[in-house]
Amino acid sequence: MTTTLPQLSLSGGVATIRLARPDAGNAVDLPTALALRDVVAEIASAAPSVHVVVLRADGRLFCAGGDVRAMAAAPDRPAFVAELAGVLHETLEALRALPVPVVAVVQGPAAGAGVGLVLAADVVLAADHVTFVAAYPSVGLSPDCGVSALLPGVVGARRAALFLLTGAPVDAATALDWGLVSEVCPAETLDARAGEVVAAIAALPRQAVGEAARLLRRSGERSYAASLADEAATIARLSSTDEAGALLAAFASPARPTPARPTTGDPT
């Protein structure tokens, strides 16, 4: 089994990261983790030209999690697992620090670290046949990749506990009901729907949607008062940009159509 590293493509303001190790279920070994970190760093360096990041995968599975075979074969297992988790955690922090929205397109099952990748995204579109599973208990390990940190805020503490402590898989419909994914659609229409969502985000002012994504990511990490203060500072900062100035002026222009006054039956 050979390692095929994650692929990056940049086109029209869209940066697409593609997990490309389908023969291993896109399981993450150390070379894959290191390459994924480099890909995210490359996107960060190209940030002014990127409006949205799309996370995809080749093959039947979205991501089977960490490479269990590589863990089992490591001469110093704790050192290997610590290094693998450390690199993945650096990558996920960098991904969530990108100043643009991240959209995950989940075409197949996600397990373990794959769930962590899903949680790191802002918008998650999933095919109707996919499943999500913690996977950690089945190999005697605890959660990593931000799963224990982010899952309770996304699905609720009780559901997170059920998911992580039983290891039972969650189907796409349940994932939608829980809020783990944003939308579910038939597999044959997933790519088309992803294209619509990505295009809609890319068409909006980059800084505005990027700051909205940042504010949402920070919402569960601080107090309401701190969030309000950040919102006020951010909207004031954006109002000073040329783009916002032009859009605000156009919206306020007298030439803009005035909404029709509702009729009540009373001519006065």
Report on this model:
The protein has 268 residues and is of the alpha/beta class. The chain has helices at residues 30-45, 68-73, 77-97, 113-120, 147-155, 157-166, 172-178, 187-202, 206-218, 224-239, 242-252; strands spanning 7-11, 14-19, 52-57, 102-106, 110-111, 123-127, 131-133, 170-171, 183-185. Mean pLDDT is 93; it is low at 264-268.
Summarize the structure.
By secondary structure, this protein is an alpha/beta fold. Helices cover 50% and strands 14% of the residues.
Instruction: Give the percentage of residues in beta strands.
Output: 5-15%
SS content category:
alpha/beta
What is the succession of H and E elements?
EEHEHHEEHEEHHEHEHHHH
Q: Determine the fraction of residues in helical runs and give it as a percent range.
A: 40-55%
What are the low-pLDDT stretches, counting only 5+ consecutive residues below 50?
264-268
Based on the model shown, name its key terms.
alpha/beta; 268 residues; single chain; globular; disordered C terminus; 11 helices; 6-stranded mixed beta sheet
Protein topology:
Elements: E1 7-11, E2 14-19, H1 30-45, E3 52-57, H2 68-73, H3 77-97, E4 102-106, E5 110-111, H4 113-120, E6 123-127, E7 131-133, H5 147-155, H6 157-166, E8 170-171, H7 172-178, E9 183-185, H8 187-202, H9 206-218, H10 224-239, H11 242-252
Parallel strand pairs: 2-3, 3-4, 4-6, 5-7, 6-9
Antiparallel strand pairs: 1-2, 7-8
